[in-house]
Hints:
The protein is an alpha/beta fold. The chain has nine helices and nine strands. 35% of the residues lie in helices and 15% in strands. Strands 1, 2, 3, 4, 5, 6, 7, 8 and 9 form a nine-stranded mixed sheet that branches. The chain is globular and about 55 Å long.
Amino acid sequence: xxxxxxxxxxxxxxxxxxxxxxxxxxxxxxxxxxxxxxxxxxxxxxxxxxxxxxxxxxxxxxxxxxxxxxxxxxxxxxxxxxxxxxxxxxxxxxxxxxxxxxxxxxxxxxxxxxxxxxxxxxxxxxxxxxxxxxxxxxxxxxxxxxxxxxxxxxxxxxxxxxxxxxxxxxxxxxxxxxxxxxxxxxxxxxxxxxxxxxxxxxxxxxxxxxxxxxxxxxxxxxxxxxxxxxxxxxxxxxxxxxxxxxxxxxxxxxxxxxxxxxxxxxxxxxxxxxxxxxxx
Length: 280
């Protein structure tokens, strides 16, 4: 696959349902539409209710996600709740009211009507054969990227749905990230289309310098390695200011996962405008 990106952002991800729970509430349809309108692939975290409905919820409980969660539901697993119980809860906020946790059926129905809509499925708690059957029923496998930190789960879904893209995300300490990355590289990335590296802040980071535990050389080396294998390298900077994003773009990275889509788009546009001006 050719990933000669030039001066453009490609295949970027709007984390946790489109707005990362920051610019838009997570786990709601408005967040996904927000991500799609910005040109992103919003991320659906895949969980299963007690009655077998596959839904988009990041955590295994609703404690963090639902602003006014009833006491009786605090600490309860998604897998112990029915879909009707989930639908009864408000997942929006004051700025975006009237939202509910979407099922994958709802999301796939929207994608089926618009082939330009793509989405990330991040594996949390679901039977993969059951998930594959749902995807096949809507005919949207070619619009999906399945993501997991478990390579075997990616390979399992790929065997069931050859049209789906697969991505391994790698988090943790610098040593763990580099160790996992090099292990995958030794296997020529085993058919993965994308590799995502998490960029965690250095504890001693100060403004005006490189802020992440992975060094610029680490990222440049990873990019050279993936490019040689025809694999897309994506980074997830958990936090970034404009100068941080510019430094990453200077390395040649063109695929990102972000919790701040509007900031990301605005600053990326500014970066590329400067590049065009300087090249004259």
